[in-house]
Every structure is written in structure tokens, then in C-alpha cells.
Amino acid sequence: MRPTLLTAALAVAPALAYPGMGTPEQNKQVRAAMAAGENFHDKLVRDITKASSNIKQPRQCSKRCEGTDNDDAEDGDEEVDGADGGRDPDENHHLDSLELIGDLIGMPNNKLSSTGFAIKELLTTTGGAPESGEAYRPGELARKGTAACAKDTCCIWKYVADDMVPIFRGNSGRCTNLARAAIRMGFHDAGGWSRTTGPLGGADGSLILAPEEILRSDNRGLEEIVAQTKQWYAQYSRYGVGMADLVQFAANVATVVCPLGPRVRTFIGRKDSSVPSPKGLLPPVDGSADFLIEMFRNKTIEPHGLTALLGAHTTSQQRFVDPSRAGDPQDSTPGVWDILYYQQTLNQVPTPQRVFKFQSDVVLSQHPLIKQEFSLFAAKDNGQSHWNFDYAREYIRLSLLGVNNINTLTECTKSLPPRIRAFSAPDEDLVSKWLQGGIAGETARKIMNGDSLNGGKGILSLVSGLLGKLKSRF
């Protein structure tokens, strides 16, 4: 029995990948269009509309906008470096996930809903806005159970989110083990899909609705969050809440509850399935870098996207790779969504002895198709905003794998809680001592639960600090 990369993290580690490279003629046309100043996105959308779903799309190499706030980014902020149809491992290009998925494949633009068009842009370009601050205004939310709430698809989801937040946030302000497990649950449900599986698998709720899935070794450690999600489903299904949506919504709520985490655009309306997903589609922790890259490419997730998804290890504390070190984190700020994971995996900053690095992460960080983006996410000046943007964009893709009614979905990002843009741990000194090997005992469990090591002493200062720092409008 082999633990998976996601199982090991107890948080996560993570949609048709490119079917292949564009023909030489296609690549030549793309380069010519770019040299002439033609917008690459417009050309790509036009080609997709004209072509069948079997046409091989060229990859785009992009240069990220640096030093900008992602929530305020405008379409077209990305500057295109060039396009290349090759997979030369010696080239330091960003390989972005640009393939259409689900029912959007081959759908002409004049048939797209507003949501379908927005998702298509997010899937096929490196622009758009994968994060959003949209929220209900004071007095706008209808009361639960009323006709007005039933008329607004997103209304009930705001009540779901409000119930999730106290489960996902500990009294230290860090996100809890259930939050990390919710993110991992979202990965595992959606990740049970590949281009080879046809209509089976994907973000369909089968991880919970198909009883055999939770018994698989891949899903070890998800039992508690699955039980909690069943409780939420029992409470809210009568209001039209589906399991597939509930799983992905929980992942996005958990992500934004983690301090510094992105507010990922969130879509509702997936179809539930009780048919088990195919086996063998989740990444083994001991898989080679090339194996893992190819596995994710078969989910339409290219190396750039894989690099972003790996960063979810920043909140995690492993339990299964080395049981003798159960509870040891993957960076020195467990429960906080920061870029220390990238920095410490690369040995750019001091790493305390209790930090446990997955060998697969270390190997991936040095792979020619990964290492440049990995280093960019570690940048002190703009790595956090760059990573949040890319993670949000890639998780939108992941959360829609196997979904074949994307064009009919409803965006409900406004139901999510607000972001926490700044965070100072109330028990930082005690956490540091623990990371250096001291005060073991129940410390790992307390940190996993999001508890302050100061007990109640740090709560008031934490609340005061948060009130002073949360100045963003949502």
C-alpha cells in the first residue's frame, strides 16, 4: 500500500492535458501571428471555435505581471514571450494549461452563457481574473428558507460558508486539519479523472456518494472531513445543495480561510454521481518527476499548473510518509497559506529541523519544466500574489474536471468568506521552539487543530490584529 502525494500532506498536493504538440505549420502560424502583433488569445479562441476537439493546440509561454494585486488585475495584463510547440526539457518556458474541457470543447462562442464564456477565458488564456472579491452587500442576503433565498442560487451557499468557517479556522487564526482535509478532498474527488477515463470520474461527489472510494488507501485520512461533509449535506440538501458542489465549495472556503489564501472563483451546478471513479489516478508520493508531470498532463494540467497546485503543501503536516514524524509540517508555518513552502523546499531560507520535505517535491522543484516557476513563486517581492493567482486559475480547472455542464453553471464566489491578507501568529515564539525540536508532546496535534499554543492568551491579540489588518473590501 503506497501513500499518495496528497495523502501524505493531509492537505493536498493536487483537464484534457494537451493531446500533443501543434503541427509545425500550426506553430509557424502562431509565431507569425504574434510577430504581427495579433492577440494570441483571440487567435486561440478563433481556432478552437473553428476546429474540432481533436485539433492539437499549441502551448503558450507567458511572462507574468509582477508586483500587481491580483484582485485588481485587468484582462490582457499578461505579456506573451513566445509560443513553442516543443517539449524540450532544457527550455525554461512556462508551460501553461490552456486546453478546453467538458462541454466547452467545440462549443461556439455564440452558444456560451456568460459563465461559460468567463470559464472559457480562464481555461484558455493566462489572463482573466481567477480571484474575486465579489461579496453580498449588507442587507442584500435573504433569510434562509425564504422564497427570495430560493430564487438566488448563491444565497444558500452563503449560509453553508458561514457554517464552515468556524470548523476551518482555529483560535490561533491558522486553518485547521479539517480545512486542509477539505482541500485535499476537493483534489481527490476531481483528480479521479483522466483523458483516458471517458465520462467516469472527476468533480462529481463520488468520493462520498460511492462508498467504496473512501475505503481506498489513496483516501486514507479523509474519513473525518467526509463525515463532516455528510452532515452539511444532510442539513442543506433540501435547499438544493449537491454533493459534488459541496465538496468543491468546501475546498475553496478552506483555502480562503487559511491566512493569505486566495479567494478562488467558485461555480455551482455540477451533477452528482454515485459511480466510483477509476482507480490509480492519484499521484504516488514516490513517483518520479517525469511520471508525475505526465500524470497531471493527462488531466490537462501542465507543469506550470502542477507547480502552483503543489504549493498547497504550505499548510500541511504529514502523517503517513513517515509515521514516526507524524504531524511534522512541510514548511515552518503550518496552517498559513504562504510561500515558505517554495522557499524552504529550495533551501533559500533556513529550514528548522522539524520541517519534513517530501522527496517528490524536492525532485520536482529541480525538474527543468518546473524549477523556474518554482523559483518565481519563492520570490520575496511578488511570489505570494503570483502564486495565489496561478493557484486560483489552476484550481478552477481542477474543480471542473469531468464536468460536462460547465456552460450551465452559476458563479457563487460572492458566497465565500473574505480573504485574510495579513497574519501574525499569536504564538510564534512557541511554534518556533517546536519547529527546532522542543516542546513536542501534544504540540503537533494542537497546531493541526489550529489551536494557539498560548491557550487563551493569544486570542484577544489575534482578533485585535486581524481587525487592524483586514482593510480590504470584499
UniProtKB/TrEMBL annotation:
Query: Which residues form each disulfide bond in the chain?
Result: 175-258
GO biological process, any: hydrogen peroxide catabolic process
Q: Where is the composition biased (Polar residues)?
A: 51-60
Bias-annotated ranges (Acidic residues): 68-82
Record-annotated residues binding Ca(2+) 2?
Answer: 314, 331, 333, 338
Per the UniProt entry, the signal peptide is 1-17
Could you say which cofactors this protein requires?
Answer: Ca(2+); heme b
Q: Looking at the keywords, is Iron present?
A: yes
**What does the record give as the active site?**
188
Q: Which UniProt keywords apply?
A: Calcium, Disulfide bond, Glycoprotein, Heme, Iron, Metal-binding, Oxidoreductase, Peroxidase, Signal
Query: Which Enzyme Commission numbers does its entry carry?
Result: 1.11.1.-
Identify the residues that the record assigns to the Plant heme peroxidase family profile domain, covering every copy.
177-421
Q: Which residues bind Ca(2+) 1?
A: 189, 202, 204, 206
Region of interest: Disordered: 51-94
The annotated regions of Basic and acidic residues compositional bias extend over 84-94
Please tell me where heme b binds in this chain: 313
The Swiss-Prot or TrEMBL record describes its family as follows: Belongs to the peroxidase family. Ligninase subfamily.
What this protein is called in its record is: Peroxidase
Q: Which organism is it from?
A: Pyricularia oryzae (strain 70-15 / ATCC MYA-4617 / FGSC 8958) (Rice blast fungus)
